[in-house]
């Protein structure tokens, strides 16, 4: 039997994830995958996570000779998709491809779920990340983030911002922006990025905070205007767009749409290790990297211990924003 290392066990305990540390036969990875694998994306098609999931799934199918099939299971701020994975057999054939929000934010923001994400979802790897974008309809009289902030300060009720949902990474980015700039933009939750972008294009909302990939073409065509990205640096896909940190002078402002991979708790560790290795190979393949880069996605593909440590840091950061802003799921 193969047991998880002591340092990882301690890291898991910090997150309340100790239940995932069950040992697993090494031979499990030798035959996996032996049938089609479902990649559950808990958001509608068309968003940044969905884009990355489909690109990676296609490459995983080529690597393994088995079909990796993306299924969009939406609703309840991503928890319906997460629940589908939790309730599946712990054999690696049902995988959650989602923002860490589905593992962390639901607990931080008080959402009631039928499962314990800390015990019932086993982290595998962080496949990649892309900055979010603060984007406006061209009718908004702001060509910079500073000008948008000035509008919000002048009339606090005039500016609302759409996101893919309550408790999403995007809402946390928006509330962190409110806190950093001393403004009170009103949050408007949608059921995914696609409907938020549709309403932004139709000028039903003035501002949105969503992932970069579905916005690039709209920005370049002039249909939308990206004022800032939320990562730590500018991105190749949008070299002329500054970061929120640069615009506001807030060095520690950094929010990205991350693509985490999880399997049901008690999935054999060897299967998780093989999946992590396959995803690492996929996202660092030149052809895949180029397609990801076109949409502003940075490949990562880290190890499970690295991903667990990352989750611990994110949990502390999100808890601070939740406490100051009062974000609640229920």
Topology:
Blueprint: H1 6-15, H2 28-31, E1 37-41, H3 48-64, E2 68-72, H4 79-86, E3 94-98, H5 101-108, H6 117-120, E4 121-136, H7 145-154, E5 160-163, H8 169-181, E6 186-189, H9 193-201, E7 207-211, H10 216-221, E8 225-229, H11 244-248, E9 256-264, H12 269-283, H13 286-294, E10 298-299, H14 304-325
Parallel strand pairs: 1-2, 1-3, 5-6, 5-7
Antiparallel strand pairs: 3-9, 4-7, 4-8, 4-9, 4-10
Helix pairs in contact: 1-14, 3-12, 8-14
Keywords, separated by commas or semicolons:
330 residues; alpha/beta; D-Maltodextrin-Binding Protein, domain 2; ten-stranded mixed β-sheet; 14 helices; 10 strands; 18% strand; globular
Give an account of the 3D structure.
The longest helix has 22 residues, at 304-325. Strand 1 (37-41), helix 3 and strand 2 form a beta-alpha-beta unit. Residues 1-6 and 18-24 have low confidence and may be disordered. With 330 residues, this protein is of the alpha/beta class. It has helices spanning 6-15, 28-31, 48-64, 79-86, 101-108, 117-120, 145-154, 169-181, 193-201, 216-221, 244-248, 269-283, 286-294, 304-325, and strands spanning 37-41, 68-72, 94-98, 121-136, 160-163, 186-189, 207-211, 225-229, 256-264, 298-299. Strands 1, 2, 3, 4, 5, 6, 7, 8, 9 and 10 form a ten-stranded mixed beta sheet that branches. The protein has two domains: 6-130 and 257-325, Bordetella uptake gene, domain 1 (D-Maltodextrin-Binding Protein, domain 2), CATH 3.40.190.150; 131-248, D-Maltodextrin-Binding Protein, domain 2 (3-Layer(aba) Sandwich).
């Amino acid at each position: 039997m193969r047991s998880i290392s002591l340092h990882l066990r301690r890291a898991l305990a910090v997150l309340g994830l100790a239940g995932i540390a069950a040992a697993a036969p090494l031979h499990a990875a030798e035959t996996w995958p032996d049938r089609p694998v479902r990649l559950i994306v808990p958001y509608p098609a068309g968003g940044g996570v969905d884009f990355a999931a489909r690109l990676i799934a296609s490459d995983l199918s080529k690597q393994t000779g088995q079909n990796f099939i993306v299924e969009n299971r939406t609703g309840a701020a991503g928890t319906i998709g997460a629940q589908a994975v939790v309730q599946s057999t712990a054999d690696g054939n049902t995988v959650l491809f989602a923002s860490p929000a589905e593992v962390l934010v639901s607990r931080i923001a008080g959402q009631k779920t039928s499962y314990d994400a800390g015990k019932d979802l086993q982290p595998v790897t962080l496949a990649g990340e892309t900055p979010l974008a603060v984007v406006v309809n061209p009718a908004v009289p702001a060509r910079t983030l500073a000008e948008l902030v000035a509008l919000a300060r002048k009339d606090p009720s005039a500016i609302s911002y759409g996101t893919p949902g309550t408790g999403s990474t995007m809402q946390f980015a928006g509330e962190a922006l409110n806190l950093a700039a001393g403004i009170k933009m009103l949050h408007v939750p949608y059921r995914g990025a696609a409907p938020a972008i549709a309403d932004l294009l139709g000028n039903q909302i003035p501002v949105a905070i969503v992932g970069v990939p579905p916005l690039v073409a709209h920005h370049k065509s002039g249909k939308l205007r990206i004022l800032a990205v939320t990562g730590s640096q500018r991105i190749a896909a949008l070299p002329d767009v500054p970061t929120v940190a640069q615009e506001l002078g807030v060095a520690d402002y950094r929010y990205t749409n991350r693509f985490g991979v999880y399997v049901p708790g008690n999935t054999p560790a060897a299967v998780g290790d093989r999946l992590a290795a396959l995803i690492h190979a996929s996202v660092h393949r030149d052809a895949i990297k180029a397609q990801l880069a076109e949409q502003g996605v940075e490949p990562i593909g880290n190890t499970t211990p690295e991903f667990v440590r990352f989750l611990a840091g994110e949990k502390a950061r999100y808890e601070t924003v939740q406490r100051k802003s009062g974000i609640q799921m229920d």
